[in-house]
Amino acid sequence: xxxxxxxxxxxxxxxxxxxxxxxxxxxxxxxxxxxxxxxxxxxxxxxxxxxxxxxxxxxxxxxxxxxxxxxxxxxxxxxxxxxxxxxxxxxxxxxxxxxxxxxxxxxxxxxxxxxxxxxxxxxxxxxxxxxxxxxxxxxxxxxxxxxxxxxxxxxxxxxxxxxxxxxxxxxxxxxxxxxxxxxxxxxxxxxxxxxxxxxxxxxxxxxxxxxxxxxxxxxxxxxxxxxxxxxxxxxxxxxxxxxxxxxxxxxxxxxxxxxxxxxxxxxxxxxxxxxxxxxxxxxxxxxxxxxxxxxxxxxxxxxxxxxxxxxxxxxxxxxxxxxxxxxxxxxxxxxxxxxxxxxxxxxxxxxxxxxxxxxxxxxxxxxxxxxxxxxxxxxxxxxxxxxxxxxxxxxxxxxxxxxxxxxxxxxxxxxxxxxxxxxxxxxxxxxxxxxxxxxxxxxxxxxxxxxxxxxxxxxxxxxxxxxxxxxxxxxxxxxxxxxxxxxxxxxxxxxxxxxxxxxxxxxxxxxxxxxxxxxxxxxxxxxxxxxxxxxxxxxxxxxxxxxxxxxxxxxxxxxxxxxxxxxxxxxxxxxxxxxxxxxxxxxxxxxxxxxxxxxxxxxxxxxxxxxxxxxxxx
Length: 618
Hints:
The protein has helices spanning 2-14, 24-52, 96-105, 117-130, 140-149, 156-172, 175-185, 195-203, 212-221, 225-228, 234-251, 256-261, 279-291, 307-328, 373-382, 416-422, 425-435, 437-446, 468-480, 502-517, 574-583, 608-617, and strands at 66-70, 76-80, 83-84, 192-193, 298-302, 332-338, 344-348, 390-392, 413-415, 531-536, 542-548, 553-559.
């Protein structure tokens, strides 16, 4: 009788609509399906983790090694990158070393499976009492998961990922292996990662020799490395270390007497204090990263920087800005000095690196003004022009644009040598239009200019913006007889560039010599031959001088970051004076200059280049 009654009851319930209870067997099947699906998902997740997350990542060196940059004369001048040493072996450490970290970070480390529910509850209770976050519930395993495989994002998604990875780590590794990975990669402040590097950095000893006091101080730093590292905040580190010692006493790792006498370790930094940045250091660092793979410890890298020349460059720039900065409204200056093969020996990117890390020698693109005429006349000489040939200096109009000479004078004819030396804009535009703007741009590209160049009539007057570094390298190409690539590492081999035909180079040298000897660059003259060109932009917003002698190629720029006009500053003024003071170390020429190279004999047979020029412009 019972069975029919039950069946009848079920039949009655089934007729009551969608809100009636489902049969027990169906509910069991549904729960079973959900459990199987959840288990499958978790299993798939663990399989994915096993495939995608390298267990050894925490033991590997950092992607870029810590680097000490050394000048060519052997003087360290900057330290870049984070410092990490080889992994530690827990079994070789004194017992009090791992005990210090476990006591303060995760005292139930050996008794949980990656997630400490009791610790989470205790932290929540203490935080509730304190009215804010005072304790964290993360285990050492969770911290390893976070620092090794995840970002610092505080989202719920990231926390769930952390828990999931922690459980996976507990399944794959022993407790000592987890602890070793944690201690080998945890951050201790001052760019130091891992216990071995921290012991070396703060106490100049291996971790196997750390005392109880030293271990407690290092364990204390983990909570807030930037605020509690013993070098920057010894009092704060000591106060936190006493809490570590008390926790160790509570866990039985040390006695109450030992805890009471802790923690007075004296920091003994074994690495000389060096600045992290600098204009040259910032520029050369990518070259270092490309040249040196990941490695433990520090790598000493010898650069091309000359510490004597660098100090002189900084001194000359500072003196020039102090002397005329306010009076002439000159807010910034930059200088690049290199050997003719491209080895950069000095670099100043602005008035003060501390105030502004923007490198005006490398990152700023500014109009070079007449310093761009190097490429205009190079294109013409490639086309067969000679320094003694003539070009009109008469007014002209191209479309709706009428270029003007500086000072407004115009008229007559000039030799190319005189036009270049006097920086005639009218002549330069004619030369560029005759040689062809495409050839002017090609000449700039062949000498290493990579910045965008505008193909219009103003190109000849330096209207396109370039960096001081690439402009200086272009002048170095003339000095070297082939295009050069600026480089900053001694290990780098100078790249063989596009050669400049000897006859073309000889004629360009003649023009550059004339510009300094009798032209706009006279302020840069020294006892020996100097070759260079000035550049001044509209309303005196930029002033440039780039030149070279037998040893150095140097570019100098002065101006303002907001591009406000200076008061009458030209490339032949302050930039040329800075150039002379740097290259000549303050020397001024008192003896007569050497005779310039004799120009080639003029030819009565006019070349096609001159015929086209005279025929077009008269």
